């Protein structure tokens, strides 16, 4: 799989300290320290290169925020721990609904009818177990 393939992805994000940040039109959101799973889709011309872009935001290599998750990744000490993918499939909403934890209301769901595409959990294992079950393939090696 290359970065230009498309499909559904979930970022496993660690936020080491609580943070209050302005998230675009959603306004200010208080995030507890812990683990977050963000599910998105990447069907545009660059496919999974969107994940590369998210990693650049998290590392400070890119400044422009386009999606809600960019604010979490770029304006806190959050780090992408792992990535799960389902190449060629549009499973974003279904996966987001199946993740256990506390949804961050409206986050990442401005273009669908879901309550949220970001889910918080206190423990990494809570997300890993669900992600292994929900995605067909774990990880995203990039060319």
Which features does this protein show?
alpha+beta; two-stranded antiparallel sheet; 4 helices; 6-stranded antiparallel sheet
Put simply, the count of helices is 4
The count of domains is 1
Give helix and strand order, one letter per element, not per position.
Answer: EEEEHHEHEEHE
Radius of gyration: 14 Å
Give the neighbour order of strands across the main sheet: 6-7-4-1-5-8
Distance between the termini: 8 Å
Major sheet attributes: 6 strands, antiparallel
DSSP summary, beta strand count: 8
Helix content: 25-40%
Name the poorly predicted regions. none
What sort of overall outline do the alpha carbons produce when their principal axes are compared?
globular
Return the average pLDDT rounded to an integer: 87
Going by helix content, strand content and strand pairing, the class is alpha+beta
Strand proportion, as a percent range, falls in 25-35%
